[in-house]
Amino acid sequence: MRVIKNVCKNDAALPIISAMTRVTIKDVARIAGVSPSAVSRVFTDGASASEATREKVLTVARDLGYRPSLLARGLVGTRTNLVTLVMGRMHDPFDALFLDELAEALAARGTRLMLASAGRDAAGDSGLLQALDYKSDAVIVAAGTMSPEHADLCVRAGLPVILSGRVLDAPGVDSVLADNVGGGRQAAELLVRTGCRRLAYLGRGGATFSDRERLKGFAGAASRAGIEVATTAVADRDHGTVFQAATDLFAGPAPPDGLFASTDSMAIAAIEAARAVGLSVPDDLSIVGFNNVPAAAWRSNQLTTVDYPIAGVVSGILDLLDSRLADPDRAREVRRIPTGLVVRATTREKHPHRRGCP
Amino acid sequence: MRVIKNVCKNDAALPIISAMTRVTIKDVARIAGVSPSAVSRVFTDGASASEATREKVLTVARDLGYRPSLLARGLVGTRTNLVTLVMGRMHDPFDALFLDELAEALAARGTRLMLASAGRDAAGDSGLLQALDYKSDAVIVAAGTMSPEHADLCVRAGLPVILSGRVLDAPGVDSVLADNVGGGRQAAELLVRTGCRRLAYLGRGGATFSDRERLKGFAGAASRAGIEVATTAVADRDHGTVFQAATDLFAGPAPPDGLFASTDSMAIAAIEAARAVGLSVPDDLSIVGFNNVPAAAWRSNQLTTVDYPIAGVVSGILDLLDSRLADPDRAREVRRIPTGLVVRATTREKHPHRRGCP
DNA sequence: CTGAAAGCGCTTACAG
DNA sequence: CTGAAAGCGCTTACAG
User: Which keywords, in A-to-Z order, does the entry hold (chains A, B) (predicted)?
Assistant: First the structure.
């Protein structure tokens, strides 16, 4: 390798990067007339280096186009500034919103992001291993169900695990999530308040953590109002499947007058199903979604929904990341970010049945 | 560090990973009674090791929970099996579809994916630098506009650059993209064929590479049919902004009877605008989108659109990646993947004005 | 097939 | 403030 160094001279006025040959700390040290240690210190925040040295090194580094190898740094250093995110397939527009916000926030603080698909193994443990293999500072798990065993393995290995959107009662494993239970409650209270009496929940049949929590909050609040919730479960979150399930529900023997869907995507499919069977929304049927994705605001949907506090969840994750890195032994923390209701046109005005009351 | 090794004994029947202490190749070598080189060979495909050695090493490695450090491997080896993807903000559902497919395809071949936001700098050069810093096998650029200078820098440094959705005429820089021009042509031909005569293009005003190409194909085919295309540009791709622009266009002095939008998202906003101003789609106005995102198929949209061949583009990228790694000096290649037309309900039946002809 | 040695590019105590 | 030395965890020629 070294043999061909400089065989191919630069012909342009660009940094002197010979083909295939990386500029190393030694090159900079040699040309600047200092030791590699000195160069290293100049590139390390808070390390001691005289102004003269700093200037010499910086100049040479710039001229040579030197950049410290993150691989070498990671190998020897204690922190890599790298975080691994375990995600599932991004089948819902919401997933992109979340990833976008997280990626942006991490980039803003100079943290690199590596992706690992939860993919085949439900536990997403291949993602954890990948995080370990690259010595990630932490792994953020936003998909699948993590087993306590795997979580424990990571924590022992010194890899902080932060769960997004799910909770695991394992020592050292932090969680950040939207207050799904609260959001479900808000949905139920809105529907009840606006006169709905036959409430239904359209969800994944408990297939995901969020789905279970949202139903719990919804059913709980409904129950307090003396209403029992009918649930419809759909195996696949695909639009067509949900549309069909909703159509069956609406055309069935006990159609609801108030529906809460696990996600906006499902709620939108329900709106279309309502139209298909000739139900008027919100006159015959009120619908509430969850997430507040852009499509919820579209003119043809105007979906009332529970707003997922993405920014809050993301900053919660960064917060917990910092805290955990600062103190690896701190107690686990679960942070639930409050949701808000965004009332649009798929629910009725307040108190329609109280019209005329004082 | 080493001092605390084994201070905290394992209490469970899990691999022996002492707190904070990584199992290294030396540990495995020592316990297996072989040299580190031997262990390395066992973990290297196609390296020579006797069956006895292999078995011993593998057993010990499993018991100890040993995994080769990718950092160390990357530092010393010639390939890292790591690819960096430069993406912009994921404001369109399409972005998630693409990333999802790419991530899945890379994972399937055992390649790790690192994310770099194009973010602030339009050139996305920070992403390139990040790719360099981690010794990525290649960088896939799917956002922003890359300057020839930066591309050249990467190629010189031995970092293959693969452009997705854009083309750059620089040596060694490969590209894969949907045939935008062809797609635009298909849209125009469909509209003309179904009787539209006043064609309009709703796009980003040439802000992106795709936008320019789609308009080019559309306007070219329209021109061959003797029709001049009116273009409407929108600065922000936000739904509300597009809705307003489309409303203005439709309510303006020269409303079109056939509209081609740069993306499905924009086309859907246009559908809603048409409804808002009382235009009937497709009777008064035909609309064609681009991408074929899930929402295009929704009952309330039923959007006729040009299908973006995501799978084809992704496999093209992997293909070019392999080729480039196998032969770094090969000529640059631009691969355009054919698009297809998905005809739904926002365009008319064929030849409505020829009704009665033989 | 196998091990000793050198090296990847960097940082971290350690003396000065 | 500075440099020599050791080491991070691995692989790659090089002899055997």
Answer: DNA-binding, Repressor, Transcription, Transcription regulation
Q: Does B109 have pLDDT greater than 70? A: yes
Mutation site, B14, B154, B299, interface A, largest A CB count within 10 A = B299
From CA A341, how far away is CA A286, in angstroms rounded?
14
How far is the C-alpha of A260 from the C-alpha of B357, rounded, in Å? 53
Task: Write out the residue limits of the CATH 1.10.260.40 domain(s) in chain A.
Answer: 2-68
**Could you tell me the distance in Å between the CA of residue B21 and the C1' of nucleotide C9?**
22
Alpha helix (H) residue ranges in chain A: 25-32, 36-42, 51-64, 70-76, 93-108, 125-133, 148-156, 180-193, 209-224, 239-251, 264-276, 310-326
Question: Which CA-bearing residue is nearest the C1' of D3?
Answer: A35
CA atoms B23, B27, B28, B31: torsion sign: negative
pTM here?
0.90
Separation between the CA of A302 and the C1’ of C10 (whole angstroms) = 56
Give the tens place of pLDDT for each residue, A159-196.
999 999 999 999 999 999 999 999 999 999 999 999 99
Distance in angstroms (rounded) separating the CA atoms of residues A281 and A298: 15
For A211-237, what is the mean pLDDT?
Answer: 97
Cβ–Cβ below 8 Å for B103 and A117: yes
What's the Å distance between residue A172 CA and nucleotide D15 C1'?
50
CATH class given for the domain over B180-309: alpha beta
- Of A89, A135, A153, nearest to B100 by CB-CB distance is A89
Q: Residues A336, A329, A102, A262: is their CA dihedral positive or negative? A: negative
Q: Count of CB atoms within 10 A of residue A24's CB?
A: 16
What span, in angstroms and rounded, lies between the C-alpha atoms of B221 and B288?
15
Question: Any idea what DSSP says for residue B308?
Answer: P
* Distance in angstroms: CA B76, C1' C7: 8
First to last CA, chain B: 88
pLDDT tens digits, A36-54: 999 999 999 888 889 999 9
pLDDT tens by residue, B35-86: 999 999 999 988 888 999 999 999 999 999 999 999 999 999 888 999 999 9
Identify all chain B residues contacting A22, using CB atoms and an 8 Å cutoff. Answer: 157
Of the candidate CATH numbers 1.20.120.740, 3.30.710.10, 1.10.260.40, 3.30.70.560, the domain formed by A2-68 belongs to 1.10.260.40
Instruction: Answer whether any strand D atom is within 7 A of the Cβ of B22.
Output: yes
From the list A90, A104, A156, the residue facing B100 with the nearest CB is A90
Pairwise CA distance, residues A319 & A333, whole Å: 11
Q: Which nucleotide has the shortest C1'-to-CA distance from A79?
A: C11
Q: Report how far residue A250's alpha carbon sits from residue A193's, in angstroms, rounded to the nearest whole number.
A: 22
8 A C-beta contact, residue A99 and residue A50 = no
Q: Do A157 and B22 touch (CB under 8 A)?
A: yes
Q: Where in chain B is the domain with CATH 3.40.50.2300?
A: 82-178+310-337, 180-309
Check: CB of residue A93 under 8 Å from CB of residue A308.
no
Report CB contact under 8 Å: B119, A112.
no
CA distance B68 to chain A (A): 7
| Superfamily of the domain at B82-178+310-337 | Response regulator (3.40.50.2300)
Question: What is the phi-psi region of residue A351: left when phi exceeds 0, alpha when psi lies from -120 to 50, beta otherwise?
Answer: left
For residue A224, pLDDT over 90 is answered with yes
